[in-house]
Specification:
5 strands; 20% strand
Length: 138
């Protein structure tokens, strides 16, 4: 494989790797920012009945909390309830919310840092594979 087709594969692979890497970096930065500036509160976990068009499995519960200025906010949990880390209906879970946009929440202890590092690792691997393929083929 050489010529234009090989060049296209190398370029798209490299761009995909860069995008995946940057997604991981931005995700980690957002997690750190919410830990740093987020307001800690206890959120009430509310189960919801999944609609037929819901595609999220397992379904994510709703989190309801009150902001510093007294507004009651209800958002979908950024993490699902699992057997290992259940979010029982009617229970409370510690969260941090962004005071500028209370819809952005971070469930304490469930930050999913591994997912962000996974994006970074896969992005770097794709970028290195594209560079290697480009050096070998082109």
């Amino acid at each position: 494989m050489g010529g234009t087709a090989g060049f296209a594969v190398v370029v798209f692979g490299a761009l995909g790797g860069v995008v995946a890497y940057l997604a991981g970096v931005v995700g980690l930065r957002e997690l750190r920012r919410l830990r740093r500036v987020g307001v800690p509160v206890q959120a009430l976990v509310r189960a919801r009945v999944p609609a037929p068009e819901d595609r999220a499995l397992p379904p994510r519960p709703l989190l309801q909390f009150e902001t510093e200025d007294g507004r009651v906010v209800e958002v979908f949990s950024p993490v699902p309830s699992t057997a290992r880390h259940p979010l029982p209906d009617g229970g409370y879970v510690p969260i941090h919310y962004d005071p500028a946009d209370p819809r952005l929440v971070l469930v304490d202890g469930r930050e999913r840092v591994r997912v962000e590092y996974g994006f970074m690792t896969l992005g770097l691997l794709m970028l290195l594979a594209s560079i290697t393929l480009g050096a070998a083929v082109l």
